[in-house]
C-alpha cells in the first residue's frame, strides 16, 4: 500500500506532524502484510480470533468512521441497540439480537471469502487519502463534537478534531503491534 501524503505547504506544522505520525503508523501496519497471500492474511495463528487482513480492515473502518465523525458529527457513529436489548445483555454476550453496527464490526476483523488483500489495502489507501483531505480542509483542529452515546463513552464527553487524530494514531499503532505479533507467529517474519 502506498500511503497518500499531503505535500501542500499550506499545512501548518501541527497538521504535518499529525499526518506524518499517522502515515508512519499506517506503514508499520501495512508492512506486516507485505508478501502475504489472501489465505495467509486470513489465518488466525494465535489463540485470539485476529487475522492480519482483518486488522487492516478494522483499522481502515475505524479511521474512516472517526473522520466521518469529525466532518458529519456523532450521528454517523450511532450505537443504537435493537428494541428490547439492553446494554447489560449486549455487553454480557446474552443479547437475543445483535445491532447491525456490532455485526459489521465483527466482519471487519475477518477476511471474508470475497476479500482480497490487494482490495483491503486499496480501501485503506483511499481512507488514508480522504483523511488527509479532511485534515487539510479543517478550519480548526480544536473544534469539538460530542461523542456518541455508548457505555464506554463518559456522558457529556466531547472530542476535538485533534483528539480524534491522536486517537486514530494510537489505535493504528496499537493494532500495528498486534499485527507484528501475528506476522511473526504466522511465518517468523518481523516488520521492525
From TrEMBL:
<protein>
    <submittedName>
        <fullName>DinB family protein</fullName>
    </submittedName>
</protein>
<dbReference type="InterPro" id="IPR034660">
    <property type="entry name" value="DinB/YfiT-like"/>
</dbReference>
<dbReference type="InterPro" id="IPR007061">
    <property type="entry name" value="MST-like"/>
</dbReference>
<dbReference type="Pfam" id="PF04978">
    <property type="entry name" value="MST"/>
</dbReference>
Amino acid at each position: 500500500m502506498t500511503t497518500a501524503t499531503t505535500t501542500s505547504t499550506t499545512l501548518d506544522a501541527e497538521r504535518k506532524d499529525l499526518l506524518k505520525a499517522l502515515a508512519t503508523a499506517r506503514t508499520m501496519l501495512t508492512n506486516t502484510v507485505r508478501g502475504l497471500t489472501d489465505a495467509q492474511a486470513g489465518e488466525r495463528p494465535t489463540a485470539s480470533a485476529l487475522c492480519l487482513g482483518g486488522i487492516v480492515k478494522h483499522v481502515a473502518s475505524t479511521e474512516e468512521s472517526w473522520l466521518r465523525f469529525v466532518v458529519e458529527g456523532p450521528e454517523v457513529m450511532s450505537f443504537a441497540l435493537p428494541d428490547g436489548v439492553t446494554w447489560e445483555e449486549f455487553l454480557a454476550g446474552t443479547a437475543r439480537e445483535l445491532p447491525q453496527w456490532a455485526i459489521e464490526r465483527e466482519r471487519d476483523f475477518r477476511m471474508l471469502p470475497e476479500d482480497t488483500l490487494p482490495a483491503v489495502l486499496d480501501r485503506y489507501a483511499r481512507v488514508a487519502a480522504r483523511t488527509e483531505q479532511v485534515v487539510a480542509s479543517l478550519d480548526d483542529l480544536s473544534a469539538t463534537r460530542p461523542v456518541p452515546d455508548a457505555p464506554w463513552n463518559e456522558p457529556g464527553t466531547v472530542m476535538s478534531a485533534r483528539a480524534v487524530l491522536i486517537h486514530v494514531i494510537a489505535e493504528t499503532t496499537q493494532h500495528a503491534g498486534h499485527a507484528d505479533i501475528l506476522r511473526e507467529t504466522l511465518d517468523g517474519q518481523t516488520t521492525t
